[in-house]
Amino acid sequence: MSINLEKLTITSAHRHLSNGDFSVEELVGACFKNIEDKNPKLNAFLEVFGDWKEEVKKAQKLFNEGGATELTGIPLAIKDNILIKGKIASAGSKILENYRAVYDATAIAKLKKHQSIFIGRSNMDEFAMGSSTENSAYGPSKNPIDPERVPGGSSGGSAVAVSMGGALASLGSETGGSVRQPAAFCGLLGLKPTYGRISRYGLIALGSSLDQIGPFAKSVADLEIVFNAIKGEDSFDATTLSEPGGLVLPKKLVVGIPRDLLSNPGINQEVIENFEKSVEKLTDLGFEIRDISLPNAAHSLAVYYIIMPAEVSSNLARFDGVRYGFHKTGDDLIDEYVKTRSSGFGREPRRRIILGTYVLSTGYYDAFYNKANLMRNLIIADFEKVFESGVHLVATPTTPTEAFKLGEKANDPLAMYMSDLLTAPANVAGIPAISIPSGFSKNNLPLGLQFIAPAFREDVLFSASRKFLDE
Question: Helices 300-315 and 347-359, interaxial angle, to 10°?
Fold first, then answer.
């Protein structure tokens, strides 16, 4: 049978592979053909792995012997900041252009147990700093729906890889919305899990108190399959959490609408209109809708852009050209540091390193960093209060605008940062959130609906999303 990668999902591919309708090699070959045809224009992949035939044989053997799981033989794209042993992991940066991982990230090790097929490493904003994938040292990725527009970021390459049929699912990473925003821009589903549910071991760090690996997929079922495969405690990551028992899905879901957050003038009117239609649909589907208040959530973006650069300045201090990565010779050690970091880091990482160093410096630590952490606690308390009141989910649009044009915000960092307006609150609070397709703009570009749930309630996100999308 012919393989329609536009409609093929993990679940349907597994069924066809189990029935022998096509082989793992044929499925992977179809993805490679799509990459060969489309990647030169869209730049989703920085590298396509050429050593997949042996892995394909192992996967096919599992099908032949009846030992295959739903992820066996499934082609996956992996963001360039998630380590795969023996493969380059550059984090979209020149400073790590030749760095080869010496171990597998925990998420990768878990997927290898299923004998998933890693197609290649996907493009990203340098060190995950950006909302458009225009900050990659290797050129921007382009939106497959309209190549004149951005796919979102920082995990834009991972979103494009799935949307263009180069993989059936992919892994990205989230710090302030870097999975959900590209998912919305490219018409996919994207999950930001509870902080600590997926190990960060082997994820090149940006903001350690914010970072999480998250999957992209074309269906809720696929998203849940990948999430279940990679979640769990990890002895290599002390921030991972054990799953609480006794979680029961509510019979009727109550959805809270934070009108105070949605009154921001930066949210496009067309986005608001699409969101209101989504709320009407939720009502028709039997959800209970309540207007709620998140009085401090509007400050999430400011909090995020203090805490994240502070953590960036610390995490990126290790990239000095001495132990690994790009190196530029100088007159002395300090000169080597300056030349290596000035040449190796792009404009956006340098901007955030400077900003982070500033907010952590003597005289400004209390004025900025400490106050941001105090406000973070208030934002967390706001969500806890809402969820304790009987609300199961908070709903918002995923992004304040449709996908914008390449270069439109490249020289206006503040306008670019506004892309995280609606996604940052979940990262700051450490709670799970999902973006699902909710329709199209007048320009026929995808728009997204975001659900936010209490910690550990990804099951509620999946349940509500299934109902909304009629899966």
Answer: 100
pLDDT cut 90: percent of the chain above it: 90
5 occurs within a structural domain? no
CATH of the domain at 189: 3.90.1300.10
What is the residue range of 127's domain?
10-230
> What are the tokens at 83?
């380590």
How many domains does the chain fold into? 1
Three-class SS state of 63:
helix
Are 149 and 406 in contact, with CB atoms under 8 Å apart? yes
Classified as helix, coil or strand, 406 is coil
pLDDT of residue 190: 98
SS3 179: coil
Arithmetic mean of pLDDT, 220-244: 96
The answer on pLDDT for 1 being more than 80 is: no
**Are 356 and 369 in contact, with CB atoms under 8 Å apart?**
no
Cα–Cα distance, 386 to 291 (Å, whole number): 10
From 178, 219, 278, 435, active-site residue: 178
pLDDT digits (tens, 9 = 90+) for 112-129: 999 999 999 999 999 999
Active site residue 18: no
| Cα separation values, 159 from 45, 80, 261, 265, 309, Å | 11, 13, 27, 28, 25
User: Looking at this protein, which amino acid is placed at residue 357?
Assistant: T
Q: With 0.85 as the threshold, say if the pTM is over it.
A: yes
Choosing from 38, 79, 218, 231, which is the catalytic residue? 79
The count of other CB atoms within 10 Å of the CB of residue 125 is: 31
Q: Write the secondary structure of 397-416 as one string of H (helix), E (strand) and C (coil).
A: ECCCCCCCECCCCCCCHHHH
Whether 178 is a known active-site residue: answer yes
Indicate which residue of 154, 219, 435, 463 is catalytic.
154
Structure tokens at 385: 């209060």
Rounded to the nearest integer, the mean pLDDT of the chain is 96
Roughly how many angstroms between the first and final C-alpha of the chain, as a whole number? 24
Counting beta carbons within 10 angstroms of the beta carbon of residue 318, is it exposed (0 to 12), middle (13 to 18) or buried (19 or more)? Answer: exposed
Tokens linked to 100: 């080869």
